[in-house]
Amino acid sequence: MASLAPLDTRTMMVMVIAGTLSMALAMAFVRTPRREGTGFWAWALLTHAGTYLLFMLRGQISDWLSIVLANTILAGTFALLLAAVTAFHGRAQPWMWLLAPIPATALLNGLFLQDLRLRLLTSSFMLSIQIVLIVWALWRPTRPNQPRGAILITLALSTQGAILLLRGIWYLSQPTAVQGLGGNGTAQSITFLSAFIVVLLASLGFVLMTRDRAEAINHELANNDLLTGIANRRLLQQTLQRDAQHAMRQREAYAVLMVDIDHFKAINDSRGHLAGDAVLRHVAQLLHSRLRSQDMVGRWGGEEFLLLLPATDVSGASRLAQELRTLVQDTPCRYEGMLIPAQISIGVCAATLQPGDRARWLVDAADKALYRAKERGRNSVEQAPLLRPGKPVPAQG
Ligand SMILES: Nc1nc2c(ncn2[C@@H]2O[C@H](COP(=O)(O)OP(=O)(O)OP(=O)(O)O)[C@@H](O)[C@H]2O)c(=O)[nH]1
User: Fold this and answer.
1) How many angstroms separate the alpha carbon of residue 260 from the centre of ligand 1?
2) Whose CA is closest to atom 8 on ligand 1?
3) Which of 29, 33, 158, 232 keeps 20 to 30 A from 331, CA to CA?
4) ipTM score here?
5) Residues spanned by the domain of 262
6) Domain CATH for 264
7) C-beta of residue 387 within 8 angstroms of C-beta of residue 361
8) Which of 315, 302, 240 is nearest to 268 (CA)?
9) For ligand 1, atom 12, which residue shows the shortest CA distance?
10) What CA–CA distance (Å, rounded) separates 396 from 115?
11) Is there a domain that residue 4 lies in?
């Protein structure tokens, strides 16, 4: 294989050290709501730089330091990467898998100090195992919604694994007198260049993972009701506006259901506020269980829920409302050994929307219908027509 003259091994090592240290510094500034893992990753980068510093001093210091210690620290680097990924997913650290490769690497490098081929082969093997462990830990939990960071780390580490493997094969295929780390051979240059790129890409991947999770948490907090986990009022209003605009353009039917738990104050007063919270969660789940994928249920406020039902006419909306009312009545909430019965009243408004209509008219009408359901004794469904100001009131159907 021809030697790449401009790729000087020493320059490569300085590049790897400088690049790694800058990434470690950058990692120290990663600020997200949950920082698990970034500390381990920064330490991994620091130890990686330390390894290459020792590699660079090959020939000037004892081989026990520049070979055995350096490779042992490198095994520690990969152990720290595994710890970072495990911590990111909030799992217990797999201590055996984390620690075992470190003494094993020290032992094998000490044993084969004078035998470059065997040393490279065993080191490559140990590192490949560590890479497989990291990738496994990365993908073991349920798939993340935004897997781009994990993909980047996987690609970077797999490339590193493949290069180590190829390097091992290449060394084996060479005549006995091949250069070690001190040489300027193409294989060494490629190894160092790849280490540099791998470190940068994998670290970028880890930063992306933490950033994507932070964004997902922010999105969850901004759009979901903390107590029940369903949509909050903000998301409901946004979705209602968007859906209603669409229905107006298409002159399509659209329905909203305003749901209120009957005598909820009595549940709070007699069973306690925490039991009241459990009933809210329970009713939210029941309402959610009957919806189609295009529908949405959210908490409008207190013990009130709003359901948005695209492409639903008045008979479909009223039928669903009756089903939900019966479901809640027949399914008491289990809480700390108690069975807490609950009932709901529902106001329905459904209409074929036309350009110029307002989304809030639907909610106002459903609210009026709900008021009537409460007045008429609760645990019931009432429906109200959409009132278009300045237009005659349509006949009730
Ligand atoms: N546990 C709990 N209670 C809440 C929450 N939000 C509002 N509430 C309570 O919900 C109750 C609503 O009471 P009311 O408006 O009188 O309504 P109600 O008792 O359901 O009576 P009707 O609607 O007329 O059947 C109040 O006691 C509020 O304190 C919450 O997040 N958790």
Assistant:
1) 9
2) 302
3) 232
4) 0.94
5) 233-383
6) 3.30.70.270
7) yes
8) 302
9) 265
10) 92
11) no
